[in-house]
């Protein structure tokens, strides 16, 4: 195995035997095979799409296959093997469809000559004979092909191919969430296929790949906008909410991850059962949606971010439901009461599948909960949330006034991920050290490093404006754009906003590319720069966007303020 896709990669270079995250070498290799297979599905499906022969099942498979390989999502050998088996079936199905529609030639399995294709079908992707990897993607040969990252020898090309691939994984995760609620975007799917194929195209060097990486960012903005629409149309616009972080005396079920539809189904199915529902980690922002507020048994949030789950899940005492990333390898003490669903998997952990309409039956989990002790109290009080773009902008006048009047000097975007390494105390220290006339804008689980500090407010505007999950990062973009409008600025870089972003996994990679595609410059990134960014690619990022690694709190305060 070789994996360097996340911030905690071994020695800041790459995991080679087992992942720091707990992913074993065999599963890592299978995940590489799956990604390789997805590229060949993308090849056929892009032809199917341009001929209007594509289907929803294949789109869903591409998204889920990518999402399953995001850090801390699926550790199960059986699951990845099953996905590979299914992937071959899907690939063969799409190919057959193309042959019977005469889009590709049955005998060679390849495209018609370019001139016929252009005349009859319009310009499409390259013929498969031009992408030699296609011949290697068969159930018999896949195991003997080097599908790993290091198969690309040129360090800069490898770096850009991986940057693009990780952006696509993030995009797939966000598109998956929108899909669950019935929102789809053909252009996003077409881009994912085009970009997957580009990572296998040896004619593409730095000059061709850099624009594609930025296009990944702009398609990322579109994906996040779609997800925002899906969430707010389905569940309403989040409202400023003081979220309870204490517990009640009833047995409870803890819902983690990012999937709001799963939470909704739990709330529906637990009515009248005497079982309470709590959120964990990235599910915290669900407490601010109007659609969920009416449920009397929706108690609040329990604990902190993903890396604290071993300790906190033990103390919760009841069943835990992992809707998406981040799951960490569970301890024996609670392995019998943790469940996965969707793309999440861990061998030995029970998995709940949806029926064909997307409905899930949680009755067994609810029965188990009834027999469990109530959660052990970890803390008490409330934390403020629910400042997605609509509620944040409802006080825009107040904010603009406070900036003009000098009460607010600066906004600092501290969005992104949390992580387990001790050095992340930097983000707590940084938040505490910020002067009282600054406001933090956040989204994602990075907030747990400072959302329980008492940072106060500025004339009623809280000093931590929490837009929600990493899935809600679009809100930060809208807030910045609307503030620029209110101040009459053409360039969002002229706003009194600086960026101190914490990343961990590939959804954060996409959010970063989204910001770059919007022209945001001067982003400080930490706690470590991605190992997959080669020195030359870093130079491009520094020259074009002035990205810098974070340093000490004192130094960064000087730079960012
Ligand atoms: Fe290592 Fe991160 Fe890859 Fe896990 S996801 S194997 S920790 S680089
Ligand atoms: Fe967190 Fe995993 Fe990235 Fe959704 S839950 S932000 S790390």
Automatic annotation (TrEMBL):
It is an enzyme of class 1 (oxidoreductase). Coiled coil: none annotated. The modification Cysteine persulfide is found at residue 417. Its cofactor is [4Fe-4S] cluster; hybrid [4Fe-2O-2S] cluster. [4Fe-4S] cluster binds at residues 3, 6, 15, 21. Keywords: 4Fe-4S, Cytoplasm, Iron, Iron-sulfur, Metal-binding, Oxidoreductase. SUPFAM superfamilies: Prismane protein-like. One of its GO terms (cellular component) is cytoplasm. InterPro entries: HCP/CODH, Hydroxylam_reduct, Prismane-like_a/b-sand, Prismane-like_sf, Prismane_a-bundle. GO terms for biological process: response to hydrogen peroxide. It is found in: Cytoplasm. One of its GO terms (molecular function) is peroxidase activity. It catalyses: A + NH4(+) + H2O = hydroxylamine + AH2 + H(+). Its main location: cytoplasm. Belongs to the HCP family. PANTHER family: HYDROXYLAMINE REDUCTASE (PTHR30109:SF0). This is Hydroxylamine reductase.
